[in-house]
């Protein structure tokens, strides 16, 4: 890690630009119509037909209905599902669910003739095979789904962003210092929020430029919050009989962040909500942002949606607090592949072009939690990864914290800041400037960001 600067920057060095239309997340939750949910699921399959056709340069006539009996080899595009409503999906229970356009919405059992596949419920796949008996679709090949192109920026804009990394006297280049944390931020035994205080202390001590925090903040699954058996510090002078969860957030979350902002005015703070946040008025995913002013957060804080894609200077960051890695890992059916499991999970998300490609999600009882994925399927299109892949993908999960480069994307699971009985982990990311070559300057064309080549990320135990 580079040495900590002796002085903090005079002004914020991070410029944020939303790449997500956050206004669309203000939809009315718990009002889902089955017809709208079905339409999204159907359209998703049809969109992948177009993607596969273009990438592999296929004639449309090559595609067919896998549920129709035919000895002829066809290409079938559909969604992986299980033929049983109970238990985990396995190779024997896998079916392919078609869209109305491609197969009248029918399901057909799959028989995989070869290994080399990585499936989970909800994954949209392209399969080559036939259905000679009408009873099952015999698969001989799984076609690759192309990755999205990396984002790119004009060299002149890169220079502007690099200028922000110069010291105030212009004599040295200071890399960006980013801290990434994910809730919960306190153990089950109390509401001390020691992990949040430690993150704020680290941000202040290391002169952090950006602090990314994802929920849950006030966790509705916390035993004390669920029972209501807790009290606020005496110095808050809030009448317990009239206190609200907003008051609790103001005292336990906003006050530490406000003290950090006073100590380090140049810091930028991003807050991503969770469906487990007690103060969130939006109870489903995709999820609207938290109310910054109502919660008493400092002006340095920016509340964003869940999921969110935002440009931080010259690199694109994507964040979703929904634990999709755990959902995929629990329901995967893999054969003939020996690749890195965690990297494969992230690659699945990127190639599926969605922050939560699992459908249906795990039932609540299997996770032993009061809150499940809380999907509003009719609005799941808001969870799509649009046009380009991110440079930095933040996916908080209960799985082992990790940092991996997957298809040119820096994928980070910072872990939980606090576990049930002990402190957890967070991620610290150092990002240097994007150095431009003379050739790139002469061509004057947009250049990719190459974040993975100029960044160092460490998982730090609290």
From TrEMBL:
- Could you tell me where this protein is found in the cell? Nucleus
Q: What is its main location?
A: nucleus
Q: Name one GO molecular function term.
A: DNA binding
Keyword match Nucleus:
yes
Domain DNA polymerase alpha/delta/epsilon subunit B: from-to ranges: 178-404
Q: Where is the DNA polymerase alpha subunit B OB domain?
A: 38-143
Q: Which InterPro entries match?
A: DNA_pol_a/d/e_bsu (IPR007185), DNA_pol_alpha_bsu (IPR016722), OB_DPOA2 (IPR054300)
Keywords, comma-separated and alphabetical: DNA replication, Nucleus
Q: Name one Pfam family in it.
A: DNA_pol_E_B
One GO term of the cellular component aspect?
Answer: alpha DNA polymerase:primase complex
Cell membrane is among the record's keywords = no
Q: Which GO terms describe its biological process?
A: DNA replication initiation
Xref: PANTHER family: DNA POLYMERASE 2 ALPHA 70 KDA SUBUNIT, DNA POLYMERASE ALPHA SUBUNIT B
The similarity comment for this entry is: Belongs to the DNA polymerase alpha subunit B family.
- Could you identify this protein by its name? DNA polymerase alpha subunit B
Identify the species of origin: Aureobasidium vineae
């Amino acid at each position: 890690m580079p040495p900590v600067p002796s002085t903090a920057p005079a002004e914020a060095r991070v410029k944020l630009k939303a790449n997500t239309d956050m206004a669309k997340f203000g939809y009315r939750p718990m009002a889902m119509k089955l017809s709208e949910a079905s339409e999204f699921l159907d359209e998703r399959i049809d969109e992948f037909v177009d993607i596969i056709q273009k990438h592999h340069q296929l004639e449309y006539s090559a595609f067919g209905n896998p549920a129709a009996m035919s000895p002829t080899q066809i290409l079938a595009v559909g969604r992986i599902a299980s033929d049983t409503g109970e238990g985990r999906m396995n190779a024997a229970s896998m079916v392919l669910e078609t869209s109305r356009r491609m197969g009248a919405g029918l399901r057909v059992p799959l028989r995989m003739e070869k290994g080399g596949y990585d499936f989970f419920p909800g994954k949209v796949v392209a399969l080559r095979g036939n259905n000679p008996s009408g009873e099952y679709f015999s698969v001989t090949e799984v076609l690759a789904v192309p990755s999205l192109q990396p984002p790119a920026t004009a060299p002149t804009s890169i220079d502007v962003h690099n200028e922000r990394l110069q010291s105030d006297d212009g004599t040295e280049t200071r890399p960006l210092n980013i801290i990434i944390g994910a809730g919960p931020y306190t153990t089950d035994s109390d509401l001390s929020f020691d992990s949040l205080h430690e993150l704020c202390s680290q941000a202040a001590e290391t002169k952090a430029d950006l602090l990314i925090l994802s929920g849950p903040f006030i966790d509705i699954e916390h035993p004390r919050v669920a029972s209501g058996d807790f009290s606020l510090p005496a110095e808050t002078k809030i009448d317990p009989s009239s206190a609200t969860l907003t008051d609790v957030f103001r005292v336990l979350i906003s006050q530490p962040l406000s003290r950090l902002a006073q100590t380090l005015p140049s810091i930028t703070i991003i807050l991503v909500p969770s469906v487990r946040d007690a103060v969130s008025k939006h109870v489903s995913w995709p999820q609207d942002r938290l109310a910054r002013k109502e919660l008493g957060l400092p002006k340095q804080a920016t509340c964003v949606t869940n999921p969110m894609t935002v440009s931080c200077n010259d690199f694109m960051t994507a964040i979703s607090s929904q634990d999709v890695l755990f959902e995929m890992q629990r329901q995967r059916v893999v054969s003939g592949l020996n690749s890195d499991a965690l990297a494969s999970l992230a690659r699945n998300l990127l190639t599926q072009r969605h922050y939560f490609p699992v459908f249906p999600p795990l039932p609540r009882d299997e996770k032993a939690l009061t809150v499940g994925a809380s999907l509003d399927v009719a609005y799941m299109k808001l969870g799509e990864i649009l046009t380009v892949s991110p440079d930095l993908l933040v996916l908080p999960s209960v799985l082992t914290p990790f940092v991996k480069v997957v298809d040119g994307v820096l994928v980070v699971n910072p872990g939980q800041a606090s576990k049930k009985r002990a402190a957890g982990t967070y991620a610290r990311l150092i990002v240097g400037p994007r150095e431009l070559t003379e050739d790139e300057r002469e061509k004057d064309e947009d250049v990719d960001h190459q974040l993975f080549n100029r960044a160092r990320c460490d998982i730090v135990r609290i």
